[in-house]
Design a protein that fits this description.
By secondary structure, this protein is α/β, with parallel strands linked by helices. The chain folds into 3 domains: 154 residues, FAD/NAD(P)-binding domain (3-Layer(bba) Sandwich), CATH 3.50.50; 89 residues, protoporphyrinogen ix oxidase, domain 3; 101 residues, Protoporphyrinogen oxidase, mitochondrial, domain 2 (Polyamine Oxidase, Chain A, domain 2, Alpha-Beta Complex). It is 34% helix and 20% strand. The protein contains 16 helices and 20 strands. The strands form 5 sheets. Strands 8-7-16-17-18-15-19 form a 7-stranded mixed β-sheet. A 5-stranded parallel β-sheet has the order 10-2-1-14-20. Strand 12 and strand 13 form a beta hairpin. Helix 5 runs antiparallel to helix 6 and helix 8 packs across helix 9. The model has no long low-confidence stretch (mean pLDDT 94). The structure holds flavin-adenine dinucleotide (FAD).
Length: 449
């Protein structure tokens, strides 16, 4: 079987790797000069900078098996146990997010009335249709929980706006908990038992990892395993369905495939020329700009212990950054001795224009917030900026119509498949799981765990 894969991000690479193992003849077309999309690491001057993601959550056995099969177990590094500590900013100060019912009861992150409001949660009736995440949380948990828990988390995961994200599409497990159990609190307890049977782990409990040289290690291993199957700096421009799939790439060459998997971002897929397959609707999917700014500081200049995963900033607090990962606290060897590395995310749906500021404006804006929040005194000794003009697809209200379009096209065009963060969930783990399940279930080619 000949399989063509459009896009060499983590989805395309994992799909290609599994297909190749199953004996398929695989060709991956990657528009850029390297694979991995936003998964990209730089080691320089003793610092390690991640351009995009810093961590992967080990939520599915597919992720664990992939690392094992690639022989990367010895290079995998789990986050320091202090990473369980997550700070949320309230009244300009960093407050640990409570991680147990006892800590919640005594935490200063929420007022007494917000805590008491939670007691009503099991009695709130369930929704009869999809609603925005903000409406869902306000209805079940109250405004303060939305402002100081959900809003900052959504900024950290999606760079998104809870008023616009669809609960059903962006947080399907949360939506299902309410639908199935009528209550999030009851559902959390009961679904934990169900997960124990499948080997899945909830995002709250999953272990977080990277590799000794950053997430690039995963991309390098996949790319090495697929070396002769990858065409770099080669985008797919035209696809024609005959009795087989005929692909024309940017060099003008044509290729023939029995199966074609589309993993390029939705806005790029919308531009593909495929007679009788109209993907133009996918252009509507919103991808806000995000900048990731990695800064290194002398430890003595930082007035906070950085003893945790990082800090998330609720919109109501009025800062200009979305949050900061304490990168060198998570994993060893991310900064020279006596220094620290932190990764700050800027822009997203909250303040899209901030992501596109000039280098000096962006740095001033980030430094001003970091000085206030982390009491930083000196200047950064390391600076690395990456801006994604179209960063992360937003699963907004009505997103179901895009998923339906993809399903309909798959039904009407045997051998054509869609996979990627615009369909299977936006995290790296979701992409690995989505790609593996596509090969297992849809293509029926390879039965990996
Ligand atoms: C700043 C940032 C921080 C993030 N942080 C985290 C995190 O901490 N943890 C986490 O789990 N996730 C995180 N994510 C999300 C995660 O990194 C992505 O969702 C995931 O990597 C997407 O993988 P993908 O393969 O679906 O898409 P992509 O990686 O976008 O791959 C698609 C590929 O298609 C290529 N392409 C485009 N057009 C064509 C064409 N016509 N022909 C051929 N190729 C084409 C592109 O060049 C690209 O390489 C983050 C994302 C960003 C942007």
């Amino acid at each position: 079987m000949r399989v063509g894969i459009v896009g060499g991000g983590i989805t395309g690479l994992v799909a290609g790797y599994r297909l190749k193992q199953a004996g398929a003849e695989v060709t991956i077309f990657e528009a850029a000069g390297r694979c991995g999309g936003p998964i990209h690491t730089l080691r320089k001057d003793g610092y390690l900078a991640e351009f995009g993601p810093n961590t992967i959550l080990e939520t599915s056995p597919h992720i664990t098996t992939l690392i094992h099969d690639l022989g990367l177990e010895s290079r995998k590094v789990y986050a320091d146990p202090t990473a369980k500590n997550r700070y949320i900013v309230r009244n300009g100060a960093l407050i640990p997010l409570p991680s147990s019912p006892a800590a919640f009861a005594t935490s200063s992150l929420f007022s007494i009335s917000a805590k008491l409001r939670l007691l009503r949660e099991p009695f709130v009736p369930k929704a009869t249709q999809d609603e925005s995440l903000a409406d869902f949380v306000r209805r079940r948990l109250g405004q303060e929980f939305l402002d100081y828990a959900i809003n900052p988390f959504v900024a950290g995961i999606y760079a998104g706006d809870p008023e616009q994200l669809s609960t059903e599409q962006a947080f399907p497990k949360l939506f299902a908990l309410e639908q199935k159990y009528g209550s999030l609190i009851k559902g959390q307890i009961k679904s934990a038992k169900a997960r124990r049977k499948t080997g899945e782990v909830s995002k709250q409990r999953a272990r977080m990892f990277s590799f000794d040289d950053g997430l690039q290690v995963l991309i390098d291993a996949l790319a090495a395993a697929l070396a002769d199957s990858i065409k770099l700096s080669t985008s797919v421009e035209r696809i024609v369905r005959d009795s087989i799939w005929k692909v024309t790439d940017s060099t003008g060459a044509t290729h023939e495939f029995d199966t074609l998997i589309l993993t390029a971002p939705a806005h790029k897929l919308a531009a593909l020329d495929i007679p009788n397959v109209d993907l133009s609707l996918l252009r509507e999917i919103v991808y806000p700009p995000v900048t990731s700014l990695v800064l290194g500081f002398n430890k003595v200049d930082v007035g906070h212990a950085l003893d945790g995963f990082g800090m998330l900033i609720p919109e109501v607090e009025g800062f200009n950054i979305l949050g900061t990962v304490f990168s060198s606290s998570l994993f060893p060897n991310r900064a020279p001795n006596g220094n620290v590395t932190m990764t700050t995310y800027i822009g997203g749906m909250r303040q899209p224009k901030h992501a596109l500021l000039s280098d000096s404006e962006l740095l001033d804006l980030a430094k001003a917030d970091l000085r206030k929040l982390l009491n930083i005194k000196g200047e950064p000794s390391f600076i690395h900026r990456t801006t994604y003009e179209k960063a992360i697809p937003q699963y907004m209200m009505g997103y179901g119509k895009y998923k339906q379009l993809m399903s309909d096209i798959e039904t009407n065009n045997p051998g054509l498949y869609f996979a990627g963060n615009f369909r299977n969930g936006i995290s790296v783990g979701d992409s690995i799981t989505g790609a593996t399940e596509l090969i297992n279930v849809q293509c029926g080619m390879y039965n990996v765990q």
